Amino acid sequence: MRTTIRAGIVAILVSSAVTLSPAASREASRAPDTDIPETTRIGILKANAGSFDQALNLFNDSLKGSTRNVAALFNRGKVYLLQGRMDRAIQDLDKAIKLDPELAGAYVARGAAYRLQGDYTRALKDLTKAISLEPQNTTALNHRAALYFDTGEQEKALEDLSRIVQINPRLIRALGNRAYILEQMGRYDDAIKDLSTILTQDQNNLMAIKHLGFIYRQKGELLDALRWYQMALSLEGNASKKKRIGKEIVEIEKKAAK
User: Fold this and answer.
1) Sequence-distant (≥ 6) Cβ neighbours of residue 124 within 8 angstroms
2) How far apart are CA 172 and CA 200, in angstroms?
3) Which of 101, 123, 231, 258 could form a disulfide with 115 if both were Cys (CB 3.0 to 4.6 A apart)?
4) Helices 104-117 and 22-29 sit at what angle, rounded to 10 degrees?
């Protein structure tokens, strides 16, 4: 069985979202934070708090004052993206890019929108453009890795994830995603190394612990698999997931006893 493990890893890889921040708005305006309209700045704060409708109203007000407010367009587009309104997101991001062709974050967000629409060609073009503008943009690299994963280009996905790890070795998401792909390719020992690195940073990381149990089970090292599954059982708080892990432990124990 692989349902318990796969769900955790794939969710990280394919659901990486674009979020808003004051830093992003400063990037969009190419100006000091004090030059950003007050309504735009408050809109960003509202969006970060999850109040998307209020944020949209504030961005709309900002754009009434100036249709060339790149910060408002950029961040409104990202709110639409987070809401799943891809066409509206792309419209705003198109405008932001037209006003500022070097705005890497807008290419990332638009690339994410295209990817979620299944337009992988445009998504790849945008994400690659963002990376050319900002080679250490880990968000862009993560989205492109997810795109490569979607299209079955595992080696290219690994390359982007490895670049992320080089930039920031403490990014658990990238390590977990790389471990998942390595496991899919049968490179179990390499996957174990990444998952072990995660546990040096977060010793109770349930995703890594579950995945280690699964990999050792695949390798036929059942006693090690049991050890990791039992640890996962003790940490899992969800009753239905806990029940599934318990069933897996019983299956492994039966197999180990033969």
Assistant:
1) 111, 144, 147
2) 10
3) 123
4) 110
